[in-house]
Specification:
By secondary structure, the chain is α+β, with helices and mostly antiparallel strands. It has one domain. The chain contains five helices and four strands; from the N terminus they run H-H-H-H-H-E-E-E-E. Strands 1-2-3-4 form a four-stranded antiparallel sheet, with helices on one face. The termini are far apart.
């Protein structure tokens, strides 16, 4: 019986692990997929990007390598210069939705709602970061 469980569990575990490791784009995966972009960065920016951090003055490519594709791109103007702000979202489930409620036999598909919030953002002018911010998560509802 134990072999049968192992026979079915092992491939499932390997598949789940592969999806977790390779299904999400990480800083290191973006760097390895675009080494030419990474090599064009200064040594200082390479060190920051490798840690998933950015600084004012970085290029859009450097921010993309560090943070990935933004969830929203917002064009705007700062004075007479066009700007673009990249927003990165996270999702929060309020604690009240995670409470151990009893669900009947037909409520097995219940999925608690998740509310988006901006977790970080960067504003660019002439292709370079002029402002960036990390935003703490909102207080629980």
């Amino acid at each position: 019986m134990q072999r049968r469980v192992l026979f079915f569990a092992l491939p499932f575990g390997i598949t789940a692990t592969a999806l977790i490791l390779f299904g999400c784009a990480t800083t290191q995966s973006r760097i390895s997929q675009h080494p030419e972009m990474y090599q064009h960065l200064s040594a200082r920016d390479q060190a920051l990007v490798s840690q998933g951090q950015i600084r004012a003055g970085m290029t859009m490519d450097a921010v993309w390598l560090a943070w990935g594709t933004p969830d929203q791109k917002i064009p705007d103007n700062m004075g007479d210069r066009p700007t673009e702000t990249w927003l990165y979202l996270r999702y929060q489930t309020p604690p009240s939705y995670g409470a151990p409620y009893y669900y009947g036999p037909f409520d097995w598909s219940y999925i608690p709602p998740k509310f988006p919030y901006a977790s970080k953002g960067a504003t660019f002018s002439n292709g370079r970061v002029v402002f960036f911010q990390y935003v703490p998560p909102p207080p629980p509802l």
